[in-house]
TrEMBL record, chain A:
The lineage of its organism: Bacteria, Pseudomonadati, Pseudomonadota, Alphaproteobacteria, Rhodobacterales. Pfam families: BPD_transp_1. The chain crosses the membrane at residues 12-39, 51-73, 79-100, 147-167, 187-208. Belongs to the binding-protein-dependent transport system permease family. HisMQ subfamily. Part of the binding-protein-dependent transport system for glutamine; probably responsible for the translocation of the substrate across the membrane. This is Inner membrane amino-acid ABC transporter permease protein YecS. The keyword Lyase does not apply. It comes from the Bacteria.
From TrEMBL, chain B:
Keywords: Amino-acid transport, ATP-binding, Cell membrane, Membrane, Nucleotide-binding, Transport. GO terms for molecular function: ABC-type amino acid transporter activity; ATP binding; ATP hydrolysis activity. The gene is glnQ_2. This is Glutamine transport ATP-binding protein GlnQ. PROSITE patterns: ABC_TRANSPORTER_1, ABC_TRANSPORTER_2. It comes from Thalassovita gelatinovora. GO terms for cellular component: plasma membrane.
């Protein structure tokens, strides 16, 4: 193993890691947005919204994320959607993870005992007030860990955007392999950096979960 | 139709899940300050009837009136939501499993609804919480969370939460059924106190002794109908119907 080489290219990988982090953060924000809207749609009293929510989830979860990215990035221009690789990556991955987050959020909401909303409604709270003041504060605590699992998958999933040539960790490894012919070292380097990102995120999630616990 | 002579009126309440009729044409009047116990075997429809009064379980047909206003009016969705929220503010409910809000301390459990719905200030809310909790003997636990309370304490807080909205009517759905035997009494005492303060109460219960000691009237329900009703002395000592007698006999045996 050529440690010297690894130390020499290391700064470039750090830069690439920043791109991966940017991708991850933006994707998480978009994913949480899609997930919240998706869950709201799936729990709506309007059938049309429920159908839209369910269709979103099953379309996204029923097809490979890579195909979704390809459709958006390569197929997009054909139907008038012009995105650069980074934008396509964020949107593609965000909408993708949003479908999984939809189910996480919805699951946490319906896991709250029915007696909670009944108690809230019997003192006269509206459906929205019951949701906001009684159900969501409890559901949000429940969803921290599973959303953490979604985010973990999403961070590793950002490797996919190498396929549409976003210069992040995986793509950078491939590029340096092209010039150094040292795949073991290059992939190892990117792997370690992924692990660091995942580890820090995981600790953050665990911290949030502890903070949010009810007495 | 606003010709209600009675404080609470249930008119021809009927509820069915598909072919299964759980309430079959039940009518019932309760006067202001009266305490009515509903007894009967599980599956008799007694909880469903109670939950129909504040429309937690909607009737298939029939009317519920409270103090001259129909609770289950036919209105467009939005208007109905507004109306029913108004009505529910006047009807307190206590559940078998307490259903306290676990993320809020005792104080906030009691004051959440008045703060949201009556727009009272923080100072007023604090006074209200203290009053209501003192009333059920839970003042010293005001800053505790529900998970730190015993079952009996939880139920007393739940009663205080319901009372904080100053309801005209209180519904108790097997309020002591989930409690350890030694904790039943403290909740019963609070309910007795309410009775002495002339609160109108409808109580679904398995506690015949309690029903006998505080209630003005007892209804025995079975298979979706009111089999028999009358003053507790009559129902418990000398019921007219065999089904009532049978139920009470079995119940007594079960208690032994």
């Amino acid at each position: 193993m050529d440690v010297d080489l690894m130390l020499r290219v290391y700064p470039y990988f750090l830069q690439a890691a920043w791109v991966t982090i940017e991708l991850s953060v933006l994707t998480t924000i978009l994913g949480l947005t899609c997930g919240t809207l998706g869950a709201a749609a799936r729990l709506s009293r309007f059938r049309v919204l429920r159908i839209i929510g369910a269709t979103y989830v099953s379309l996204i979860r029923g097809t490979p994320a890579l195909i979704q990215l390809f459709i958006l990035y390569f197929g997009g221009p054909q139907i008038g959607i012009q995105l650069d690789a980074f934008e396509a990556g964020v949107i593609g991955l965000g909408v993708n993870i949003g479908a999984y987050m939809t189910e996480t959020i919805r699951g946490s909401i319906i896991a709250i005992d029915k007696g909670q909303s009944e108690a809230a409604r019997t003192v006269g709270l509206s459906k929205m007030q019951a949701m906001r003041h009684v159900i969501l504060p409890q559901a949000m605590r429940l969803m921290i860990r599973p959303l953490g699992v979604n985010i973990n998958a999403l961070i590793k999933g950002t490797a996919l955007v190498a396929a549409i040539s976003v210069v992040e960790l995986t793509y950078t490894a491939q590029r340096y392999i092209g010039s150094t012919y040292r795949p073991f070292e290059m992939f190892l380097l990117s792997g370690v950096l992924y692990m660091v990102i995942i580890y820090v995120t995981g600790r953050g999630v665990a911290w949030l979960d502890r903070k949010a616990r009810i007495v | 139709m606003t010709d209600t002579q009675h404080f609470v009126e249930i008119r021809h309440a009927q509820k069915a899940y598909g072919d299964l009729e759980v309430l079959k044409d039940i009518s019932l009047n309760v006067e202001r300050g009266q305490i009515v116990a509903i007894i009967g075997p599980s599956g008799s429809g007694k909880s469903t009837l109670l939950r129909a009064i504040n429309d937690l379980d909607a009737l298939t047909s029939g009317e519920i009136w409270l103090d001259g206003v129909q609770v289950n009016k036919t209105l467009p969705h939005r208007q109905y939501e507004k109306h029913i929220n108004q009505m529910r503010q006047q009807i307190g409910m206590v559940f078998q499993h307490f259903n306290l809000f676990p993320h809020l301390n005792v104080r906030d459990n009691v004051t959440m609804a008045p703060k949201l719905l009556k727009g009272i200030s923080k100072a007023e809310a604090d006074t209200l919480a203290e009053e209501q909790l003192a009333h059920v003997g839970m003042l010293e636990r005001i800053d505790f969370y529900p998970s730190q309370l015993s079952g009996g304490q939880k139920q007393r807080v739940a009663i205080a939460r319901a009372l904080a909205m100053k309801p005209k009517l209180m519904l108790f759905d097997e309020a002591t059924s989930a409690l350890d035997p030694e904790l039943v009494e403290e909740v019963n005492l609070v309910m007795k106190k309410l009775a002495e303060e002339d609160m109108t109460m409808i109580i679904v219960t398995h506690e015949m002794d309690f029903a006998a000691s505080v209630c003005d009237r007892v209804l025995f329900m079975d298979q979706g109908v009111v089999v028999e009703e009358g003053p507790p002395e009559k129902i418990f000592r000398n019921p007219d119907k065999d089904r009532t007698r049978e139920f009470l006999r079995k119940h007594l045996e079960g208690a032994k």
